[in-house]
């Protein structure tokens, strides 16, 4: 990053677009904000009456001063509220969002949302992960499906690859015999991001271990039946995940075409 006095400091020229603009194929906005803030629960603004609103950070370029300013935004009573946080000078949008969230916390603009009494989670972060990754059509799934569709790939959603295996995959290419699973970090025990709950610890340990064993069994059964299984963690970049799936589909179709040509 350029420092004061260096040639090319942002006072002398506009910052690169990558420092404030969202790039094509990036993760969903809410996922981007969650990651930068350090978790969904870290994005809460306290309202009156013990209520909370989910906030986001907006980066704006002011061309006259050649500066990027960060603003905290949230909705209250149907109206968008906004608060200036700070100027940011990092080289990437991700770094600038992280810095803006850090400053918002330091200035007391945000608040930790308390857990409801009935919650079995050990922290707001664990609860958000548990709630956000239960069913189908999660944000990571939707982002992946959108990119696959843009690449001209057609698929079935939330379908059983095989009738005799009563388990559904998130994206299924029937003709190519490819099953894609988008696994949530909490429910499937991600080695990078899974944080075990300290409430009812034994119950949750058995639950997650059972899910992992079920995942392994499903993969093994599908592979034995001649399917290709692709597992993607929810934290993976959607564009990279779509590339991974696309490469597998392309390879399988080329192999099939080569085999068909050789047999004629």
TrEMBL record:
One of its GO terms (molecular function) is endonuclease activity. Keywords: DNA damage, DNA repair, Endonuclease, Hydrolase, Nuclease. Residues 1-42, 114-136 are annotated as: Disordered. It comes from the Bacteria. Belongs to the Vsr family. This is Very short patch repair endonuclease. Residues 1-19 have a biased composition (Basic and acidic residues). It holds the Pfam family Vsr. The keyword DNA repair applies. InterPro entries: DNA_mismatch_endonuc_vsr, Restrct_endonuc-II-like.
